[in-house]
Amino acid sequence: MSQNQKALFIIFGGTGDLAYRKLYPALYKLYKNNYLNENFAVIGTARREWTDEYYQNIILDSIDSIKTSEQEAKAFAGHFRYQSHNVNDTDNYHTLKKLADQLDEEYQINGNRIFYLSMSPNLFGTIAAHLRGENLVNENGFNRLIIEKPFGTNFNDSNDLNNDILQSFDEEQIYRIDHYLGKDMIQSLLSLKFANPTFKHLWNKDFISNMQVTLAEDIGVEERGGYYDTSGALRDMIQNHVLQIVSFLFMDEPASSQSDDIAVEKVKALKNLQLITPENIDDKFIRGQYTTSEEEPSVLDYRSEPNIEADSTTETFVAGKVESLDKNWEGVPIYIRSGKRMKDKETRIDIVFKNEPSNLYEADELSENILTLHVGSNQGISLQINNKVVGHNFDIVPTSLDYKMNEQTPDDYEKLLLNALQGNKASFVYWEEVAYSWKYIDAIREAWDADSSNLLLYPVNTNGPKEAFDLLEQDGNYWVW
Ligand code: NAD
Description:
By secondary structure, this protein is of the alpha/beta class. Helix content is 36%, strand content 21%.
């Protein structure tokens, strides 16, 4: 069967950072690998007045470091057109429709359309309504709407946003991106849990002591200050990426590999999260903000970064203990942690198994079995076991069995765009997942907003406030990393 996909992409926000850094290179790689061939075209739209030629040069620039040949890059860029477009202006959609229909015919696309909204979510509703109202949604082929995070700032406004979009597109046509779902190691959670009897049977409260999710960044807010100061780590990282990982860790085996069945189990896991209350928040969640360190005097504290309020109480670090109401997970917390300006950049998931008494070994000789998924640049899986030392005696040492993913893996966006082309929603976020994630986050946000006295400062280049370590110690646990 031919891998060649037919689609017209209409990218709203075509002059933006995400389109340049991620979407164009991802499309080029799909082209290079023959998933896109001759039957595709891309219309970039945004407010700027660009010509097709100027736009095509931007495309060439964005793929310069990955292009196979000048000729191939030029042939690829030839599929791109630009339209200056104000998303609130109905006339602009008429021009867009004409161009879309013309490209559809020129490249024999059979009416398939992917609308990619790479711009501020407060414009999603109006764009969706115009796409439907001005007949850009095509009756002949498929119509898919890809939207970027942040999907609202709390449950109520994300619900409004969703209802707005649902006026024009069905849930089945909406592809909500969380680019973490395009990462191999996150996708591996399904196969690890459900393709291996060893882990499948151990993945419960009888054998797992706790699970840990760490998304640590070593950079600060950089030029995103204006956005970040209104968002903070809770909304920017925990609501989406971290809770998506939590849903995979707590989920039961889906009825099939169909995306709808996978979503059913993820939704159930998120719905079962025990909500935080103002009474218990200080025992379960801590928040911090980075400040200067004597060792690194040249690194700015958060409040001195550009576009940040001088008295900002926005958190740049969150650590928490996430628990499930599901009886199968009683007593098994998932400790989560994400922060900026931490000591090292690291993204990992650690599953800490329970130790068992042994007739052969003293309890203090045995370390826990720990399964680690390295999600960041050093992608791979490791399993810590207790092993006999090499040689004459029988002492035990913790030994790591390591699998490093050496092969070149496709970029997150490349995989997700291909999934969208193929109509596979398994790596996209369903509305109910968004809804239950926000309900969990809103409870924390409300408790924090009512009392800012628990904001802790942590020096840059550390792994967060001491209290993030106490959180585990009080349960007799420790951060593996
Ligand atoms: P950006 O500010 O660089 O680009 C925004 C684009 O929207 C520009 O092309 C601009 O011209 C266009 N635009 C804004 N208002 C418009 C209007 N009224 N009419 C027509 N065009 C208009 O933003 P970005 O970094 O590319 O991000 C786009 C979206 O993706 C945002 O929602 C952002 O939160 C999300 N996102 C971005 C990244 C990233 O790495 N950049 C990562 C995750 C999510």
